[in-house]
Specification:
This protein is an alpha/beta fold. The chain has helices spanning about 20-30, 60-70, 90-100, 135-150, 175-185, 210-220, 240-250; strands at about 35-40, 75-85, 105-110, 110-115, 115-120, 155, 190-195, 220-225, 250-255, 260-265. The structure holds zinc ion (2 copies) and fe (iii) ion (FE) (2 copies).
């Protein structure tokens, strides 16, 4: 069996990750991965938007860090990517980012359901108390659907992120998932199996088996990502993720070079 690529990892430029790209690459080689991709949190038009991403003027430095790792690890395929926050109205900014470097892929993620609240921010967890969980899930999936519809993204990140701290909708979310997955299919977006969920309160891979089964039925392809914020997290729990994917019916995952998709067996 061949390990799938780990397409979701960060760098210290985002201010909440440790270890240089070379250390992530060394870890990947040590555990037998043959392909990884860096997808650090993209900058925002305003550097004071929040405090967990690189500054706009650090984008070239980020690319240089990844290029250095590529040179230092010639036997490991290292892709250059970004995890881009989708917020409605941010389309021009994202289009600009996409044009700045020859990215291998872009992950579109929704963390913000409003300008002031990233639902996965541990410092903002009390916000959940003021809201109805189902309404948050609805608002989140509405944005995620829009993100897919922009056509900017090869991959949609951690699809059911609102479960992170254990806040589950008290009504059936299936229509929300269906609508999003239809948009993903139509716009050629893959979704990722993100193992970071196993390290959070929800103790579950993103997305849930239910969402993954729907995705498989609709023919939405997948990628794998550890969402590593430290070198030792590279490839973490991939055996479990692979088992989940196989049990749902997936045999192949996507790899990307300069935003061109290739299906590879895992
Ligand atoms: Zn992060
Ligand atoms: Fe994220
Ligand atoms: Fe991430
Ligand atoms: Zn992430």
């Amino acid at each position: 069996m061949k390990w799938p690529a780990d397409y979701h990892m960060h760098t210290p430029l985002c201010r909440h990750a440790t270890g240089e790209p070379g250390e992530y690459a060394a870890r990947a080689v040590a555990i037998g991965l043959t392909e990884i991709g860096f997808s650090d949190h993209s900058p925002m038009p305003r550097d004071d938007f929040d405090n967990w991403r690189m500054y706009a003027n650090q984008l070239d430095e980020y690319v240089a860090k990844v290029r250095r790792a590529q040179k230092d690890f010639p036997n490991l395929a290292i892709r250059l990517a970004l995890e881009v926050d989708y917020l409605p109205g941010g389309e021009d900014w994202i289009r600009g980012l996409a044009a700045r470097h020859p990215w291998d892929y872009l992950i579109g993620s929704v963390h913000y359901v409003s300008d002031g609240w990233a639902i996965d921010n541990p410092q903002k967890i009390s916000e959940w108390k003021n809201r109805d969980a189902f309404e948050v899930w609805s608002a989140y999936f509405e944005r995620l659907t829009k993100a897919a519809e922009t056509g900017f993204f090869e991959i949609i990140g951690h699809v059911d992120l609102p479960k992170k701290f254990g806040h589950r909708p008290d009504r059936d979310g299936t229509p929300l998932y269906e609508k999003f997955l239809n948009a993903a299919k139509k716009n050629h977006c893959a979704i990722e199996l993100n193992t970071a969920g196993l390290r959070k309160d929800c103790r579950e891979i993103y997305p849930s088996r239910q969402i993954l089964e729907l995705a498989f039925q609709k023919g939405v392809p997948i990628t794998f990502g550890s969402d590593a914020h430290a070198p030792e997290e590279v490839g973490m729990n991939f055996a479990e993720a692979i088992q989940l994917a196989h049990s749902v019916g997936y045999q192949e995952s996507c790899q990307f070079t300069q935003r061109k998709r290739q299906m590879v067996k895992f």
